[in-house]
Amino acid sequence: MTPRLIATDLDGTLLDSSTAVSPRTRRALDTARSRGIHVVPVTARQPIGLRAIAADAAFDDWALCGNGAFATHLPDGQMLFAEELPAETLRALAEALRASVPGLLFASVREGGETFVAQHGYADLAQLSDHKRDPRTMRGVALEQVLDAPSLKLVIRHPELAPPVLFDILRDLGLTGFEATLSGAPFVEVMAEGVTKATGLARLCEHLGVARAEVVAFGDALNDVEMLRWAGYGVAMAGAEPSVLDAADEVTASNDHDGVAQVIERMLG
């Protein structure tokens, strides 16, 4: 298979454990681009997190952020689409979840991923690596203000409970009207109903005139499962979660052993 579009997750997939793009991976991406192949980061990150590594990866075209909630053109910030959670859905979700789990903290991503609205106390749990934002810049507000406007992504975390535990609790509530997932970050991520990396990628491919069968996708976490299943060829990283391995057509080497580059090199001969 020679793809027309490479869709790749970043953390745990394209980036090594130091969140860098290795020289071998950069060469593979450059070779793909030189042959007219689209290289698209598909990530839970927001544009601020992409800008931190864009130069190393030479990302200078379209990107899918917020787990597929929106597509942004990196050079000029043009938005192809953006799917938001309505404020009423945010409030209903938070109310039901807080009734089951005391001590939760919430944050909302808005306005093309550039605005981050965090609840009082959220910054005390956060690190720079969580959102690629300095926690000292997270001006805390009342929960009502976090939930009073549409959101591209709602972030839910707890000072003690691990994200998979929170995810199971949320799923067991039986609520509808949103999509929840895990990316390996220390929180649960909630997007608009039906939004996944696969839905975002499908919309971008339609815009670019690329068929599903012409897409190769790489990932390692729960939020990558739908994308790997949707793509013409899905590749999981070594050490990925079982559900990711099951969704993939191939398992490559880990992110610390240039797994993405190995597959691209083979596909491009």
Task: Give keywords.
269 residues, Rossmann fold, Hypothetical Protein, Haloacid Dehalogenase-like Hydrolase, Chain: A, domain 2, 2 domains, 13 helices, 23% strand, HAD-SF_hydro_IIB, Cof, hydrolase
Give an overview of the whole structure.
By secondary structure, the protein is of the alpha/beta class. It has 13 helices and 14 strands. It has helices at 10-14, 23-34, 47-51, 54-57, 87-100, 122-125, 128-131, 143-146, 163-172, 197-208, 225-230, 242-247, 259-267, and strands at residues 5-8, 38-41, 62-65, 70-73, 78-82, 105-110, 115-119, 140-141, 153-157, 178-181, 188-192, 215-219, 233-237, 250-252. The strands form three sheets. Strands 8-7-6-9-11-10 form a six-stranded mixed sheet. The protein has a five-stranded parallel sheet with strand order 2-1-12-13-14. Helix 12 links the parallel strand 13 and strand 14 (250-252). Helix 2 (23-34) runs parallel beside helix 13 (259-267). It is globular.
